Amino acid sequence: xxxxxxGYGGMGGYHAECLKKYAETQAEFPLRLAGIYDxxxxxxxxxxxxxxxxxxxxAEIWADKSVGAVLIATPNDVHAQYVKAAAAAGxxxxxxxxxxxxxxxxxxxYADAEKAGVVFEVHQNRRWDDxxxxxxxxxxxxxxxxxxxIESRVMGGNGIPGAWRKELAHGGGxxxxxxxxxxxxxxxxxxxxxxxxxxxYSYIYGEEVEDGCRxxxxxxxxxxxxxxxxxxCFRSMPRWQVxxxxxxxTVKDWDLSGGVTRVLVRHDDKLQGIRAGxxxxxxxxxxxxxxxxxxxxPVVHAEPFAFYKNFAAACAGKEQKKIKKExxxxxxxxxxxxxxxxxxxSVIKKKI
Length: 352
Ligand SMILES: NC(=O)c1ccc[n+]([C@@H]2O[C@H](COP(=O)([O-])OP(=O)(O)OC[C@H]3O[C@@H](n4cnc5c(N)ncnc54)[C@H](O)[C@@H]3O)[C@@H](O)[C@H]2O)c1
Fold this sequence. Notes:
Layout: E1 2-6, H1 10-25, E2 32-37, H2 41-49, H3 58-63, E3 67-72, H4 79-88, E4 92-96, H5 103-116, E5 120-123, H6 130-141, E6 147-155, H7 174-189, E7 194-202, E8 212-219, E9 224-230, E10 240-244, E11 247-251, E12 258-263, E13 274-275, E14 280-281, E15 292-295, H8 306-315, H9 325-344, E16 348-349
Parallel strand pairs: 1-2, 1-3, 3-4, 4-5, 6-9
Antiparallel strand pairs: 6-10, 7-8, 7-16, 8-9, 10-11, 11-12, 12-15, 13-14
Helix pairs in contact: 4-5, 5-9, 7-9
This protein binds nicotinamide-adenine-dinucleotide.
């Protein structure tokens, strides 16, 4: 199936490269780049220089029978209009995350696609991140017993890049940008309703949108989950820290460094105190000897291009879409509850 990219910016360019590689490796469910459309002449020139066909108008894409699908990678506020037009033209659709600016808008977008009978998929690509899959594996394998607390952090020091991400009207801000990924991962990991949450936004750079956030979520099954998104941090904390009844696991970075410490003796009767700062402590003394054991991370690697393959297979009627509508809408409900919590500076107690 041929697919056209609308919005050939950072992510559109990345998709074009990935689709090229995917086309080289995948024969069963092919996806070939048909061309791109962008309102920015410089991006169109760049695409031409790279040997990519440039459509002069979206209507050319809608009218082209050889184009079976579109991939929308414009700023967030522009997604909905293209989803509506593409669906009306009978094209299957991949839309970048977040698909819209609210749950209400997202529901309407799904309705447009359902009415037209096209496949509508959201690029929640971070479900195939190796670090996330590895943490999920730690939980599922019981490597550290029952997991009761998870900390998921992404920490950059670049502020909010580009122009539209700094503006509310375009769907800017770190909750819609990164929160949508980290909340989606969280809901894939914990199969229990959320019962309460508290969120704080940061405005270090003085933009009209949040440049970071801290979101604490409590699930009905007792699991606590902390999401931290920072753009003002020049020394990162671990990407993941996971606490279980039988140990602690750390995934330091996307490079999958880190490890698992399993507790063999929970209460160490022979615990020795240490000098720490201007004092003495037993409580905070590191575990030594044979009361703990160190293990490597049980690393999981995602199948390459699994997202594109699933989309193409779903379009061919051979697989179910991996990203379900109800999952996408639930992420929006959480993002909206988090925004409300940040605005009111209060805990939101609500089953989500
Ligand atoms: N899934 C991921 O990992 C990931 C990563 C980065 C960005 N994204 C998403 O991709 C989308 C684009 O982000 P980006 O970082 O590439 O932004 P970007 O600013 O680099 O690119 C956006 C492009 O869209 C074009 N554009 C703007 N309005 C348009 C319109 N009306 N019609 C056609 N083209 C238009 C711009 O000229 C620009 O080239 C966003 O929704 C973002 O959230 C997803």
